[in-house]
RNA sequence: GGUCCGUUCGUCUAGGGGUUAGGACUUCAGAUUUUCAUUCUGGCAACAGGGGUUCGAUUCCCCUACGGACUACCA
């Protein structure tokens, strides 16, 4: 009984998709592609109260950016459309009614106050888990306790009601999870979950089973937070008569906070100083901004590679994977069982690796963009050269500008440390000759510049190590950076001359000392 | 509280009845370099605890501890 593999990612549009969600989507995608199956996205918007404008677009854009392709989705359509549960609303009631008719569900008329009262009562009676279940339902207002004609009357009068699942009192429910193996839960620990809400919408529990069945889903990969309700879902498949085509389940370990307490949440981004969302998000109500990996300058390939390794590994020493390689290497069996703490350092490391693998000319685009924003003109050739010099020392694309400002702007301040240690009259003598002769070079490049410097040093009976730091100081104002001769080549003879002259003037007190 | 899930270096993890318990990130030291970074070499660093089973347990079983999730007419 080999069915065509169909997996789905089913987020609800209640806010920005967080990286845990992206990882879930990624694993679904990897499995689908690995097995030649279909990747489906379904929007779970059965809670109208929690709808957040823009969230759906955010989900689409995030997945697109990450390179997770959808074969069927609300935006693309597909053979099982619609792919928004709100648009599928008319489909659910019949299944709920089917369950009522077969005796596996019932109508309940209890008000919110009555439910609250019941819970309070049970709590007072020291019941461990106050819930609407096989025992307590006998004391509530539902079609199990009310006379039949009373129920009909209430229904006919349009009174608000919900449909609840009639969970068996004593039954061992077994569930096979691809990651955890057999999980056993007793039905007495599950309450009579609401299937249809009083607003006519199904709850997640009903909707996801109905849709997964109708959409012929074969594998459900979702977060571990769903594990406790998975037995309930098994029950639903059974009562609906769909047990033989029930999908396989895989519950992913959670993404945890770096300090090891609880799952990674929205607020952690600000707290720890790294993004927890793929894209920047502005809360439509509060206007609060949350940073995103894309805006931070992460490359989608690095982001995906890093995410894939949060809870999964190929079992080899290889760490850098393209999406295609991930697809080939991915297996559910190699997903870990335990929660994974988020490691920002490692995330940065992945981005560095990807950055360094890029050709200089491509990296130059980041620099060019930063320059454009500041109205500084620069040729592609020059930007490419600078990028090549900088690539070993950047983590994020923004570093290209941050670390290379001195290529475009003369220093206004000088490192005090180097000035006091290395700036002296002998060095100044060398630089004075150096800057004057620089313009006379027939061939102007890093090599000839170095040659010139060496010649002058020889004349003064000095060694290169005695002046390099000071020269760097004069040209860049800094104490560290890439090869200085290359910098001087890129900056040009005239500009270098000006900078040295300026430095000699400004640093005169040090030379005198 | 109850139910369920989990626990190998600080972090991500490999491994699996007998191993010097391996790698990566971080960190430290050395080498190279005009500096810093890179690179290279090397170092520190782990099987939560207690019982079993076994000739032998980090690995299998149980208990404890700790961590986490869930416990809504939210997903």
Automatic annotation (TrEMBL):
<dbReference type="InterPro" id="IPR033910">
    <property type="entry name" value="GluRS_core"/>
</dbReference>
<dbReference type="InterPro" id="IPR008925">
    <property type="entry name" value="aa_tRNA-synth_I_cd-bd_sf"/>
</dbReference>
<dbReference type="GO" id="GO:0000049">
    <property type="term" value="F:tRNA binding"/>
</dbReference>
<comment type="similarity">
    <text>Belongs to the class-I aminoacyl-tRNA synthetase family. Glutamate--tRNA ligase type 1 subfamily.</text>
</comment>
<dbReference type="InterPro" id="IPR049940">
    <property type="entry name" value="GluQ/Sye"/>
</dbReference>
<feature type="short sequence motif" description="'KMSKS' region">
    <location>
        <begin position="263"/>
        <end position="267"/>
    </location>
</feature>
<dbReference type="InterPro" id="IPR004527">
    <property type="entry name" value="Glu-tRNA-ligase_bac/mito"/>
</dbReference>
<keyword id="KW-0436">Ligase</keyword>
<feature type="domain" description="Glutamyl/glutaminyl-tRNA synthetase class Ib catalytic">
    <location>
        <begin position="4"/>
        <end position="349"/>
    </location>
</feature>
<keyword id="KW-0067">ATP-binding</keyword>
<dbReference type="InterPro" id="IPR000924">
    <property type="entry name" value="Glu/Gln-tRNA-synth"/>
</dbReference>
<dbReference type="GO" id="GO:0005829">
    <property type="term" value="C:cytosol"/>
</dbReference>
<keyword id="KW-0963">Cytoplasm</keyword>
<keyword id="KW-0648">Protein biosynthesis</keyword>
<dbReference type="GO" id="GO:0004818">
    <property type="term" value="F:glutamate-tRNA ligase activity"/>
</dbReference>
<dbReference type="InterPro" id="IPR014729">
    <property type="entry name" value="Rossmann-like_a/b/a_fold"/>
</dbReference>
<dbReference type="Pfam" id="PF19269">
    <property type="entry name" value="Anticodon_2"/>
</dbReference>
<dbReference type="GO" id="GO:0005524">
    <property type="term" value="F:ATP binding"/>
</dbReference>
<feature type="short sequence motif" description="'HIGH' region">
    <location>
        <begin position="11"/>
        <end position="21"/>
    </location>
</feature>
<dbReference type="InterPro" id="IPR001412">
    <property type="entry name" value="aa-tRNA-synth_I_CS"/>
</dbReference>
<protein>
    <recommendedName>
        <fullName>Glutamate--tRNA ligase</fullName>
        <ecNumber>6.1.1.17</ecNumber>
    </recommendedName>
</protein>
<dbReference type="InterPro" id="IPR045462">
    <property type="entry name" value="aa-tRNA-synth_I_cd-bd"/>
</dbReference>
<dbReference type="Pfam" id="PF00749">
    <property type="entry name" value="tRNA-synt_1c"/>
</dbReference>
<feature type="binding site">
    <location>
        <position position="266"/>
    </location>
    <ligand>
        <name>ATP</name>
    </ligand>
</feature>
<comment type="function">
    <text>Catalyzes the attachment of glutamate to tRNA(Glu) in a two-step reaction: glutamate is first activated by ATP to form Glu-AMP and then transferred to the acceptor end of tRNA(Glu).</text>
</comment>
<keyword id="KW-0547">Nucleotide-binding</keyword>
<keyword id="KW-0030">Aminoacyl-tRNA synthetase</keyword>
<dbReference type="InterPro" id="IPR020058">
    <property type="entry name" value="Glu/Gln-tRNA-synth_Ib_cat-dom"/>
</dbReference>
<feature type="domain" description="Aminoacyl-tRNA synthetase class I anticodon-binding">
    <location>
        <begin position="371"/>
        <end position="504"/>
    </location>
</feature>
<comment type="subunit">
    <text>Monomer.</text>
</comment>
<dbReference type="GO" id="GO:0006424">
    <property type="term" value="P:glutamyl-tRNA aminoacylation"/>
</dbReference>
<dbReference type="GO" id="GO:0008270">
    <property type="term" value="F:zinc ion binding"/>
</dbReference>
<dbReference type="InterPro" id="IPR020751">
    <property type="entry name" value="aa-tRNA-synth_I_codon-bd_sub2"/>
</dbReference>
């Amino acid at each position: 009984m080999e069915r065509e593999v169909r997996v789905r990612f089913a987020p609800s549009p209640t806010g920005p998709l967080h990286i845990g969600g992206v990882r879930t989507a990624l694993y679904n995608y990897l499995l689908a592609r690995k097995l030649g199956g279909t990747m489906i996205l379904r929007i779970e918007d059965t809670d109208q109260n929690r709808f957040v404008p823009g969230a759906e677009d955010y989900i689409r854009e995030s997945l697109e950016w990450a390179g997770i392709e959808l074969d069927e989705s609300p935006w693309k359509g597909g053979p099982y459309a619609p792919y928004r549960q709100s648009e599928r609303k008319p489909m659910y009631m019949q299944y709920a009614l089917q369950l009522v008719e077969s005796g596996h569900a019932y109508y309940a008329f209890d008000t919110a106050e009555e439910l609250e009262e019941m819970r309070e009562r049970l709590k007072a009676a020291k019941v461990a888990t106050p819930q609407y279940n096989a025992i307590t339902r006998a004391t509530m207002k539902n079609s199990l306790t009310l006379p039949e004609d009373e129920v009909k009357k209430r229904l006919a009068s349009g009174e608000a009601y919900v449909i609840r699942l009639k969970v068996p009192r004593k039954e061992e429910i077994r569930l096979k999870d691809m990651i955890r193996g057999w999980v056993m839960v007793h039905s007495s620990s599950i309450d009579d979950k609401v299937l249809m809400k009083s607003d006519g919408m199904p709850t997640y529990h009903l909707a996801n089973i109905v849709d997964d069945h109708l959409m012929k889903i074969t594998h459900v990969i979702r977060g571990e937070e769903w594990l406790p309700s998975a037995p309930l879902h098994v029950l639903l498949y059974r009562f609906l008569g769909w047990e033989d085509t029930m999908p396989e389940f895989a519950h992913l370990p959670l993404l945890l906070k770096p300090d090891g307490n609880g799952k990674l949440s929205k607020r952690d981004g600000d707290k720890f100083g790294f993004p927890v969302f793929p894209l920047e998000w502005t809360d439509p109500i509060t206007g609060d901004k949350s940073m995103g990996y894309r805006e931070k300058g992460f490359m989608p390939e690095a982001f995906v590679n890093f995410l894939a390794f949060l809870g999964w590994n190929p079992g080899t020493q290889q760490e850098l994977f393209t999406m295609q390689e991930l697809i080939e290497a991915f297996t559910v069996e190699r997903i870990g069982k335990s929660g994974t703490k988020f490691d920002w350092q490692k995330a940065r490391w992945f981005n560095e690796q990807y950055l360094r693998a890029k050709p200089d000319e491509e990296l130059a685009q980041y620099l060019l963009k930063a320059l454009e924003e500041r109205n500084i003109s620069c040729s592609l050739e020059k930007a490419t050269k600078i990028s090549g010099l900088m690539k070993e020392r950047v983590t994020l694309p923004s570093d290209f500008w941050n670390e290379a400002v001195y290529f475009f702007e003369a220093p206004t301040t000088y490192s005090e440390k180097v000035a006091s240690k290395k700036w002296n009259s002998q060095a100044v003598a060398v630089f004075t000759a150096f800057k004057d002769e620089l313009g006379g070079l027939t061939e102007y490049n890093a090599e000839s510049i170095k040659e010139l410097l060496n010649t002058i040093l020889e004349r003064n009976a000095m060694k290169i190590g005695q002046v390099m730091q000071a020269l760097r100081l004069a040209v860049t104002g800094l104490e560290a950076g890439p090869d200085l001769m290359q910098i001087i080549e890129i900056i040009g003879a005239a500009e270098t001359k000006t900078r040295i002259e300026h430095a000699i003037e400004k640093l005169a007190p040090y030379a005198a000392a």
